[in-house]
Model the fold of this input.
Amino acid sequence: MAFESLTKILDHKIIPVVAIHDAGDALPLADALIRGGLPCAEITFRTAAAAGAIEAIAKRGDIDVGAGTVLKVEQVQQAVDAGATFIVAPGFNPKVVAYCIDNGIPVTPGVSNPTDIEMALDFGLEILKFFPAEAFGGLKTLKAMSAPYTMMRFIPTGGIGPGNVLDYLKHPKVAACGGSWMVKSDLIAAGQFERITELTREAVAIAAQARPAAS
Ligand code: 3PG
Done:
């Protein structure tokens, strides 16, 4: 299943994973990401401010915003109502995935083993989050695990940063990488948006050394 809007997200090659505690920080955060050259954010439902932050960012119209850590169907509804254009989950919840597919909502559930991947295959998905990537063996595991599934591509997330993101992005099965390193919650809470822009710029420059954007 090819979700058109997901293809656009993957073109960014890096998806900033955000846990935001105050929706009032959403707009300066979006500005910081845009200044850094990465107009994309996954706002995680790990905080009560998530829906408000998604709504504030979505209204701008100049940044691709999705929802992460989506664990329940109700959160999909909340996220989409707020303006999220894609849904990310740490694991594979068939109810969440089925709801998204039935409603044409791009979804990338998390997988960490072949059984998860085969469940996703049954749903016709082609892009999956590999989570938590580094803790599950990183690129070595991804290479071995993805080999039988020629049609699948992955968004490794978890433990990725400036030191290893390029290795991931160079692998043909990697569609993009997710990570929080340029948008850490403490930087957001401290109002260090210039630092976020710097880290984002650095991430974009690293990603530019990988192959052309996946599509
Ligand atoms: C996630 O929610 O996907 C992870 O928290 C991101 O992992 P990281 O913080 O190690 O980048």
Notes: The mean pLDDT is 95. The beta strands are 14-18, 40-44, 64-68, 87-88, 107-108, 110-111, 127-130, 153-156, 177-179.
